[in-house]
Structure formats: C-alpha cells, structure tokens
C-alpha cells in the first residue's frame, strides 16, 4: 500500500454517513461468550491481574496539577538543545521564528492523539471482556478497561485545564479503530490494540515523558507507560501459541490485517494535522517527517516493540519485515535473526 493509498483508505473511513458530528459510530455484530469454568486461577494472566490490582493510581491525587503550563512560552535552553537538529534542518518546513509555536502545537497534537487512542483502547478492551473465551482473559481485560478510563481522564483533564488546544483524531488511527470495532474476531482486536496501538503508545509515552516541556504531562506519561507495558504482556500471553494452530489461510488474513494496520499507523506520525493548523507547506512537512533522521529514529523507537511482540507470537512474516524496512521503521540489524 502506497502513502496515497493509505491516505485514501483513511479518508474513506474518516467521515461516516449518518454519524453525528464528532462521533465515530460503528455497527458491529459480535459473539458474546460466557464461561462457567472458574477454577484456573494460577495462569500467567491471573498473575498479571494481581500486578494490575496493586499498580492502580489515581489521576486526581497522584498527579500534581498545580504547575502553571504556559502554552506558547519560549523554549528553555535544555529543551532547545534536544530539538535543535530538528529545528535547524534545511529541509524543515518550520521557520525558526515559529519554532516555539511548533513545539507547543506538536505537544498538543501528540497528547490529543494519545487521548483518542486511549478511548479506542477503552472500547476495544471492553469488547474483549465479552468475546474472549477464557475467564482469565475476561478478568484481566476488565482490569485494563479501568486503566484505560483513568488514562482518558488524565489526558482529557490535561488538555482541558492546561493546554486548551484540541486536535481531531488522526485519520489513520480512526480508520484502524473503526476496523477493530467492526471486526468480530477477538484475536484481531488483540492484534490491533494490544500489539499495534498499545505497542506504539508504550514507546511514544516513554519518549514523550523525556521530551515534553512541563512536569504534569511528564508525570502522566510515565504512569501510563507502566500500565501500557502490562497491556502488551496481556496480548502476548493471550495470543501465545494461537497462530501455530491456525490454517495457512487464517494466518494470511492476519498478515493482511497487520500490513494495513502498520501502514495506517505509519501515516499517524507524519504530523499532517500540525502542518495544516500552522498553515505551513503540508507536502513539505510530510516529506520532512518521513525522511528527517530524527523523525526516522523516532519511528524506529516506536515500532521496535511491535517487532518484538510479532516475533514472540510467530507473526513476523517476511512481508511484514519488508514493510517495516520500506517504512524505515526498524533497524535492519534488529530484524535479523
């Protein structure tokens, strides 16, 4: 799938006929499963559930919300050094006089996309409670739903009270969420959310916690990153061995889903919404985001965890490896072996 095909795919799904403004409405036909076997309480998932119970945090009391975030304030020297190569690149569409504004818009865009992704995780994980067959997965998924609700609460409050700047959901992310919410196969929901979206979120929140410009969002992202690590483990445990039992045709279907999901998510990090809002050259901005060494390195960090997980569940096929290389999302030496 080319960049243009991915954008067309996302645009096709971006506006739903008959949907209320600002909403994503998906008709879904799923099979809810109840399981009367409550005896297996020593599996790895039950152990993960125990960890989740002692790792809960409160967005109201465990975050110090008193810091005065001044949206648009000049860059401090330390942050300026960290992003200087990005700003100084001759290919950058951002003139130096707009760099402070861009830094804040980038932060607002990133946090808004985190928020949209967390709501997607809230809904898709709630779907798993209904559709997965075993009790351990149902119980852990329910615990994760509580995590996702807390993440939505924290990001929404930060945007509303501290930034005051909103961005719509990225087209690629919206397209993927629509696919996940409309798919009746529970393992596809795991692949799309616990592997792709959560994998990206874990890496992105860790990078963001070191690069954002105020202590509130740094605290929020650090706490959320700890939760995301458990969520990815949930997917790995639940899917371990599943694909070894599937037919070739079924594995090909999963491969095709992953190929599209990876490409859609690669479009998420081209910053199109930021270039548009700042009235900068969108085509130049997209080219820069795709080719600038700092941005390439950022995507490498983001997709590294996905490579690890796909290898663990035996779904890192040659086609997926080639796509990751074509997108410059992973180092060749990391994919070897």
In brief, what are we looking at here?
This protein has helices at residues 3-14, 44-54, 77-88, 99-131, 135-163, 171-182, 186-211, 215-239, 248-268, 272-277, 282-291, 293-312, 318-326, 332-335. It is mainly alpha-helical and 337 residues long.
Topology as a string of helices (H) and strands (E): HHHHHHHHHHHHHH
Structural class: mainly alpha
Q: What about the largest sheet?
A: none
- Structure annotation, total helices: 14
Question: Could you tell me the strand content as a percent range?
Answer: under 5%
Measured between the Cα atoms of the first and last residue, the distance is 26 Å
CATH topology: Ribonucleotide Reductase, subunit A
What is the radius of gyration?
A: 20 Å
The first-level CATH class name? Mainly Alpha
**How many strands?**
0
Shape: globular
Give the CATH architecture: Orthogonal Bundle
Question: What count of structural domains?
Answer: 1
What is the overall pLDDT average? 85
Considering DSSP H and I runs of 4 or more, what fraction of the residues is helical? 55-70%
Q: Give me the CATH superfamily.
A: Ribonucleotide Reductase, subunit A
What would you note in describing this structure?
The structure is a single chain. With about 325 residues, the protein is mainly alpha-helical. It has a single domain, classed as Ribonucleotide Reductase, subunit A. The chain is built from 14 helices and no strands. The chain has helices spanning about 5-15, 45-55, 75-90, 100-130, 135-165, 170-180, 185-210, 215-240, 250-270, 270-275, 280-290, 295-310, 320-325, 330-335. Helix 2 packs parallel to helix 5 (about 135-165).
